[in-house]
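Colleagues,

For the teaching module next term, I've prepared a clean inverse folding example: a structure given as tokens, and then the sequence designed for it. I'd like students to try predicting residues themselves before seeing the answer, so please don't circulate the second half yet.
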């Protein structure tokens, strides 16, 4: 089969690799149709690492994908060849203390698609996944939109973890796919006002169209002063979706006493800092978001029921042979890109 291999910093090539085989009774062989380019994939492309997870070349990255079932193991009961599915990229062990506590996202033996030391990615023609990771679309959403269910599940999990409820006033700092996913989830939970920021004008416009009450560019205005003028008592929750020290600082200043800061973005540096006097006096709750936990199936169902529209986030579609160009596009935020997907 053909696969897109990461062969070095900002280097990719297409090569032939062996088709994976069904080994366990609950395995499913999947023919990949669409793959989404995530910010974490771009981290690996640009730097070869995220934290202490370092790529050993060559390596197949990618974890946002949709597929058609090609073959199934003898114990598979819920899907059959020809079914269209969205993919949950995390494979937990179901045995460790974290899994038994309902925290499969922090499983001590987790295997995640496209993660060094865990599992190779989905930027190839075929992958094998357990039956439980294959989420049938039932023909209710396209395979393109099914790709965006993975980042939307992160937004859904983030909003649940921050306990957003009806009438809450929140901010989302960063209006990329994850920030927009948080917006869609917050609207489902009846947040009253959602303030969003981004340095890219086009993303501000998209956020406004998707339901943000206000948007601002932190390079152009003091977004904290602008939002506090509208919400002098502060916000109930802030979602940091940019992975920057500056947005963490803005989040703390925006929150009301007792508010919640959800750290969703992935910083490219090892340490961050907080104004300890401010977060202590306000008694701010800091919530770290680790991917999505038990939210992927719900994300697919919400998309299938038309309660959320995910397709607007897809701005660019390309072929496998254009993979490197797509990664360059996403890494430089060019051409109004929000979510780029690659057809296999």
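(Answer key — instructors only)
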């Amino acid at each position: 089969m053909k696969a897109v291999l990461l062969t070095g910093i900002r280097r990719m090539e297409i090569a032939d690799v062996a088709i994976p085989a069904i080994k366990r009774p609950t395995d499913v062989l999947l023919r990949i149709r669409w793959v989404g380019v995530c910010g974490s994939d771009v981290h690996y492309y640009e730097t070869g690492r995220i934290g202490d997870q370092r790529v050993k070349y060559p390596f197949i990255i990618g974890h946002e994908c949709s597929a058609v079932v090609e073959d199934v193991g003898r114990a598979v009961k819920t899907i059959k060849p020809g079914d269209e599915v969205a993919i949950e990229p995390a494979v937990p062990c179901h045995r460790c203390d974290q899994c038994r506590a309902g925290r499969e996202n922090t499983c001590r033996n987790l295997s995640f698609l496209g993660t060094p030391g865990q599992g190779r990615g989905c930027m190839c023609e075929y992958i094998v996944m357990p039956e439980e990771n294959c989420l049938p679309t039932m023909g209710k959403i396209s395979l393109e939109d099914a790709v965006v269910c993975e980042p939307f599940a992160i937004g859904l999990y983030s909003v649940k973890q921050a306990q957003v409820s009806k009438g809450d006033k929140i901010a989302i700092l960063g209006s990329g796919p994850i920030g927009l996913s948080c917006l869609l989830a917050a609207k489902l939970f009846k947040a009253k006002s959602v303030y969003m920021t981004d340095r890219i004008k086009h993303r501000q416009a998209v956020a406004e169209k998707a339901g943000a009450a206000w948007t601002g560019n932190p390079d152009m205005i003091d977004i904290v002063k602008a939002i506090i003028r509208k919400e002098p008592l502060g916000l109930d929750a802030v979602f940091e979706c940019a992975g920057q020290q500056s947005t963490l600082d803005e989040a703390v200043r925006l929150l009301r006493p007792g508010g919640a800061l959800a750290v969703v973005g992935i910083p490219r540096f090892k340490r961050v800092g907080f104004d300890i006097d401010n977060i202590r006096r306000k008694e701010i709750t800091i919530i770290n978001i680790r991917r999505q936990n038990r939210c992927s199936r719900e994300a697919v169902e919400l998309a299938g029921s038309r309660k959320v529209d995910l397709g607007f986030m897809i701005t660019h579609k390309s072929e496998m042979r254009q993979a490197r160009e797509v990664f360059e596009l996403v890494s430089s935020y060019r051409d109004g890109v929000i979510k780029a997907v690659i057809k296999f």
